[in-house]
Amino acid sequence: MTTSFETEQGAGVTAPAPAPGLAARTRGLRKVYRSAVAVDQVDLDVPEGAVLGMLGPNGSGKTTTIRMLLGLVRPTEGEVELLGRRMPEGARHALPDVGALVEGPGFHPFLSGRENLRRLAAAEPRLPSSDIPRAVEDALERVGLGAAAHRRYKAYSLGMKQRLGLAGALLVPRRMVVLDEPTNGLDPAGTREIRRIIGELHADGVTVLVSSHLLAEVEATCTHVAVLHAGTVVAQGELDELLESGSPGLLVSTPDGDKALETLRDNRIPGKLTPDGVRADLTTATAPQVVETLVRGGVAIHEVKRERTGLEDLFARLTQHETEHEGLPEVEEVRA
To answer: Which of 71, 111, 144, 300 could be stapled to 87 by a disulfide with Cβ–Cβ 3.0 to 4.6 Å?
Structure first.
């Protein structure tokens, strides 16, 4: 669903003071559909200029959270701020600066991609009529649909429909872009194009919120991450910090694996053999101390690198308690 909103002054709408450095935030967010709890006590921070990946399996509450953030759904409980405006009351003021693609695009099936995009552009409050043709063509080219713009929407593949929805979100410059599963239905080339567009937006200082259940996509494109599970945020923060929040280790590439392991143990540094050498545990020693110990012990060192937890391992660690029916772990927050 691609939406645009007018910017007329809304009666009685007051803007709270924006949280410093945040493009969006939620506090105590909860949404209940009859007896089903879709989102439960979500506290989410989206830093300005970040590419935040909202990560979680299908049914974890990602789309519902996004819909409440954009004012498309009213929360059962909690508070939402978007670009410094309380939502949904401040939607008319905040949403013209937000491009969004939520739950797939919705266009007229018998119109061409170009004609659909022109209709959408006509509803953009900040796009003069004289600028619509150029804005439409630029958006089509940006998402790789220039050659297929004349074709009817009903003849588009799922990936092409996703691209057209993204083009609608990029018709005018935005302060924030929200993309719900943007690589859904795309082939590898299309996925690379989405990565490129997200990278360009980030370089321009645009805040990007991307929801996905694909761990590799989040790790490849995002600077920050929020992990949702069963409607609750179980971790959020800078991606690099989260990936290094597990048990720290140093991977040492050496042909003298047995000698390196013996040297580490003689100096009371835990370690274990790996296919390329050893892994030294950094809970009792620093990386320079490990290297110094090995060099002093006569171990040949080819390469040294800090071990990072993969996003798949991180996700499994954060959600394993719920899988085992032991309840959710406490929210981990990593701040710069």
So the answer is: 71
